[in-house]
Amino acid sequence: MNKSIETAPYNRSVIVGILLAGAFVAILNQTLLITALPHIMNDFNIDANKAQWLTTSFMLTNGILIPISAFLIEKFTSRTLLISAMSIFTAGTIVGAFAPNFPVLLTARIIQAAGAGIMLPLMQTVFLTIFPMEKRGRAMGMVGLVISFAPAIGPTLSGWAVEAFSWRSLFYIIFPIAVIDLLLAIILMKNVTTLRKTQIDILSVILSTLGFGGLLYGFSSAGSSGWTSTEVLTSLLVGAVALIFFIARQIKLKKPMLEFRVFSFGIFSLTTLLGTLVFALLIGTETILPLYTQKVRGVSAFDTGLMLLPGAIVMGMMSPFIGRIFDKIGGKGLAMTGFFIILLTSLPFMNLTDSTSLIWIVVVYTARLLGTAMIMMPVTTAGINALPRHLIPHGTAMNNTVRQVGGSIGTALLVSVMSSQAAHANASSPANAALHGMNAAFVVAACIALAGFLLSFTLKKKPSQPEQQQAVTR
After folding, report:
1. 416, 413, 395, 415: which is closest to 405 by C-alpha?
2. Which residues cross the membrane (predicted)?
């Protein structure tokens, strides 16, 4: 039986502001320590493989918690869940700021990620609940602003703060924002989601953790360790087997932790695939371009972050406008145009040299992120709109989970192509060999973009009002 805990009126703008601020600091934290890793390695006397866990552990914890978020959203009120998520995140930030050694700092990152992993699915579910169907594109455009701008500004902010102060200052910057947002949530947040009678299945949690965690770790490690390493193969095998058992169990359960029946809606399946492809291209590009600028061109980490910033700004600023366009015309035209832009911008990156204009790279990358903005949130919104209201929490959790795994697969694929091609390149210098590998990786990226472009033709045009109403009330 469904029940609504909160019947008092709420201020939609206030709820949107609180959730956007909380999600921003949570997602920003995912890339915040990337530039600071060399300084942390020196302070704690650790190598790069160990230090990389500060980023990997954050992503793994996110990937494990997101599938559980659908259960949490149905079990607890949106107010309780938001306050809990921000409290956990703030606690992790405090621990990180004063961490005396690496294990404590790693623990702090995991605590932060535990709070962050709840924030994004919660924000999407709340937005899709408080906004009517015809305004969801605009609402999800604001989500797109956070998703795109926060990770991109992370390396730039990190580079500046680490050079001016120390890596601990990154936690000092995040802490007051997190505390203010937490206080606002306690004072102003209202319950807007519908609770359902549900209970956690411990075996499902274990299988989900092993399944998604194993796949994420395996694909994330493949780029650096190689696809044939024992560590990667074992992780992928454990993840795949656990995921098969997890899916089989969810289908049998009357109250599944994660509802795989959302894939019975064809539009949702197609849009989730398209969203995963574009996210994989985004993360893969953001991984390879900094390697090019720093390793081949000798650009500093901070300046590299500045080069990526215009693209992030354009993507962030355009997301709300693209959301409004989606509300008027639907997602098909936007997705087709977006993938075409990404395909076109892959061509210059397939021909990088050691003298390619850095300004030209900024221009092409910025155009590429504009194309990404035209796809990511519009296709996500189109897919969620195809679901009945009671499946929205499961739809958002599934979409975020698949996108997280897709991002890892895309990055691993492009990095492994880059590494293998560089290793077998007949080049006069290591820099030229690296260039050959990077160009080859963008050939693969162009193929992925072409696949997305062709698939986007199968999207339906904007549904009529009666069809939209049926999807909401079904």
Report:
1. 413
2. 12-33, 53-73, 80-98, 110-131, 143-163, 169-188, 200-220, 232-248, 260-284, 304-322, 334-352, 358-384, 405-425, 437-459
| Predicted local distance difference test score (pLDDT) of residue 196 | 67
Q: In order of start, what are the domains of the chain with their CATH numbers?
A: 8-199 (1.20.1250.20), 201-255 (no CATH), 258-457 (1.20.1250.20)
DSSP for 192-247 reads: -SPB------HHHHHHHHHHHHHHHHHHHHHHHH-TTSHHHHHHHHHHHHHHHHHH
Distances (CA, A) of 243 to 173, 217, 386: 38, 14, 25
pTM for the model stands at 0.77
Phi-psi region of 330 (alpha: psi -120 to 50; beta: other; left: phi over 0): left
Q: pLDDT tens digits for 280-305?
A: 888 788 778 887 887 788 887 778 77
Per-residue pLDDT of 158-170, as tens digits, reads 777 877 788 898 8
Q: Which range, of 79-88, 352-361, 416-425, averages the lowest pLDDT?
A: 416-425
Show Cβ contacts of residue 221 under 8 Å, excluding neighbours closer than 6 positions.
229, 231, 232, 235, 412
Question: Which residue(s) pair with 3 in the sheet?
Answer: 195
Residue 466 CA: distances (Å) to CA of 407, 463, 470, 471: 35, 8, 6, 9
Q: At 353, which amino acid appears?
A: T
